[in-house]
Design goal:
By secondary structure, the chain is an alpha/beta fold. The protein has helices at about 30-40, 65-80, 100-105, 125-130, 135-150, 165-175, 195-200, 210-225, 245-250, 280-285, 300-310, 320-325, 330-345, 365-370, and strands spanning about 1-10, 50-60, 80-95, 115-120, 150-160, 180-185, 230-235, 235-240, 255-260, 265, 270-275, 290-295, 315-320, 345-350, 355. A hairpin with a 3-residue loop joins strand 10 (about 265) and strand 11.
Length: about 375
């Protein structure tokens, strides 16, 4: 099974922490939608032998599109690819776009999953992040969305400067009060060239504290465990049968095609990515050219990628797979590198699967980087 990711490169306004590719000008929106549909058609040969199990609208802000735009793009996938009988079709949405009428419109189409960018239920946090919605809109949209959608994910951000543990816990409890089935939660990250980075450099906002973020992470893990959520990936928690199929496919190394400016694709052996420029993307598609670059992944690249994605998930790293797919040299290396983390109770091996302990989960990215192999080939 495979997936199709469609990047919608438009937002109403720029969040202070965001470094994704988007434009706040909607002048080329209609032209962009047609170009996305055209790229979907142009790339159908890549998935001739694949069945599409997931369609994911990310961004940017996909909920900025009209229902007719989303329908056109979904229809383009169904017209050009073999699609599973009941595919997961997710639309990322912001609360200010989700009026009751809009939610009903979305539910009357093939869309069956919403990923809602709440981030926080507190007004001061939303203003600091320059979110387009307010706290009341965040709660209202969940009240309506849960009436029409069974499969809803909420995004929350922790480690926000001056956020107390009590305030963070209140954020989690507010989300849980709507009986949602999935939460994605990320530490506030300061990316270069963002407004947040500039504010921190000028002393307007304090630097996020790693220790605070780790405390918030543990509160999140414990609270969601109490409420029957499975912590299936470092930043993702789902009730049984509500894991994100789209995201799980990525972590399990399945193939996917990325449509739109800046979107990435992966076929198991090579990775490609489209140009991160709306005008150049539109020009290239109009000339029937794919605006992408491609990188052939070496065996070491594929090993490192498997280590990174595997260690973040409940599925862990199969040491049998390491030996069969990459060879004994790689197996010996990962065992050697993992030994100190096993001794420190950050990793453990069970049935030849290497996983993080509860204590090691928050540190999984750093641990993974120490298991990477750099120059074998």
């Amino acid at each position: 099974m495979s997936g199709i990711y469609i990047h919608i490169p438009f937002c109403k306004q720029a969040c202070h922490y965001c470094d994704f590719h988007f434009s706040t000008s909607l002048k080329k929106k209609d032209e962009m939608v047609l170009a996305l549909a055209k790229e979907i058609e142009m790339r159908k040969s890549e998935f001739q032998d694949e069945v599409v199990e997931t369609i994911y609208f990310g961004g940017g802000t996909p909920s900025i599109l009209e229902i007719s735009d989303l329908k056109l793009l979904i229809d383009a996938v169904f017209s050009n690819y073999k699609v599973a009988e009941n595919p997961e079709i997710t639309v990322e949405a912001n609360p200010d776009d989700l009026s009751k009428e809009r939610i009903i419109e979305l539910s009357n189409n093939k869309i069956n999953r919403l990923s809602i960018g709440i981030q926080s239920f507190f007004e001061d946090d939303l203003k600091m992040m320059n979110r387009a919605h307010n706290s009341e809109e965040a709660k209202k949209c969940l009240e309506f969305a849960t009436q029409y959608f069974d499969n809803i994910s909420v995004d929350l951000i922790y480690g926000i400067p001056d956020m107390s543990n009590e305030k963070w816990l209140q954020n989690i409890e507010t989300a849980l009060s709507f009986n949602i089935s999935h939460i994605s939660s990320y530490a506030l990250t300061v990316e270069p060239k963002t407004v947040l980075y500039s504010f921190i450099q000028k002393g307007i906002i304090p630097q996020p504290d790693d220790e605070v973020a780790q405390e918030h992470f543990q509160i999140l893990v414990d609270k969601l465990f109490e409420n029957d959520f499975i912590h299936y990936e470092l930043s993702n928690f789902g009730k049984e049968n509500y894991f994100s199929k789209n995201n799980s496919s990525y972590w399990l190394g399945k193939k996917y095609i990325g449509i739109g400016p800046s979107a990435h694709s992966y076929d198991g052996e090579k990775r490609s990515w489209n140009v991160s420029n709306n005008s150049l993307y539109l020009k290239s598609i109009s000339e029937n050219k794919l605006p992408s670059e491609t990188e052939i992944l070496s065996k070491t690249d594929r090993y490192n990628e498997y280590v990174m994605t595997g260690l973040r998930t409940i599925w862990g790293i199969s040491l049998n797979r390491i030996e069969i797919e990459f060879g004994k040299t790689y197996l010996d290396y990962i065992n050697q590198q993992a030994a100190k983390y096993i001794e420190d109770h950050l990793l453990f091996v069970d049935e030849n699967i290497l996983r993080t302990t509860k204590k090691g989960k928050f540190l999984s990215d750093g641990i993974a980087s120490d298991l990477f192999l750099l120059n074998l080939e």
